[in-house]
Amino acid sequence: MLQGFRLDRRVGLVYLGLWLIGCHSAPPVLVPAGVATVGPEQVSHWVAASTPASRALHRFSWLYVDDQASKGGRGSARIAAPDTLRFDFAGSLGIGKGSALVVGDSARWVVPERSVEDLVPSFPLLWALLGVAMPPQTGDRLAGSEHEGRVAWRYADGADTVEYLRQAGDPVTFSAEVRRAGKVVGRTRMTIRPDGAPIKARLTVPSVPAKLEITFYATVATPAFPPETWARPEP
């Protein structure tokens, strides 16, 4: 059995070896103050609109920038509905390779061997980079609203929050923000074609400050992935 790592869905910070840089302007408000309480059924409906319904391979280029350095390369994300992700990336000339298998809110394996916190963002942010909203945890306080193609919702557990905003259009925009103890862990914003193919995604981490930007250049619907797709790579 593959070893499983667990992270707090709202933390588990890091940098996936990709692109990050601080943003000093005031971030947009995703969920307005005073938004109404909603029930689990309504939130499930909003989450379902972003949940993968099949299998797809996304290929992308990435660029990472912080106040110390910048680097970039290429990568891929293989997604199998509803919640399985194989994520691979490599820097220029193949330097800095990494891979991870994520199922929902846990990493089953990470290569090279190091803590999950050194490789992937918090799980809601990781999935948000791919246009996917995670469901709430049991006991979360739920709030949100839907109006004229704009859907905004929040999960709250004490001072820990996850917020999402999805706006209809061409392209569709999908944003997320994760806070822990009231402090921003990270924010994402991405654009999606009407057919569901991702275009670009950005993650900002104010505490570094740093930025990760991903440009998707190919999306291929895949009837089935070979079993070895989910196997841990050999050393």
What does this structure look like?
This protein is mainly β. The chain has one domain (5-23, 35-223): outer membrane lipoprotein receptor (LolB), chain A. The protein has two helices and 13 strands. It has a 13-stranded antiparallel beta sheet with strand order 1-6-5-4-3-2-13-12-11-10-9-8-7. The radius of gyration is 17 Å and the shape is globular.
Entry keywords:
46% strand, globular, 2 helices, outer membrane lipoprotein receptor (LolB), chain A, 235 residues, 13-stranded antiparallel beta sheet, mainly beta, disordered N terminus, 13 strands
Radius of gyration (Å): 17 Å
Please state how the strands of the largest beta sheet are arranged side by side: 1-6-5-4-3-2-13-12-11-10-9-8-7
Number of strands: 13
CATH class: Mainly Beta
Shape: globular
Quote the distance from N terminus to C terminus. Answer: 18 Å
CATH-derived topology: outer membrane lipoprotein receptor (LolB), chain A
Q: In the CATH hierarchy, what is the architecture at level 2?
A: Clam
Written as H for each helix and E for each strand, in order along the chain, the element string is EHEEEEEHEEEEEEE
Strand content: over 45%
Q: Biggest sheet: strands, sense, closure?
A: 13 strands, antiparallel
Integer average pLDDT: 85
The percentage helix is under 10%
Number of helices: 2
Low-confidence stretches: 1-24, 115-119
- Please give the domain count: 1
Quickly give the structural class.
mainly beta
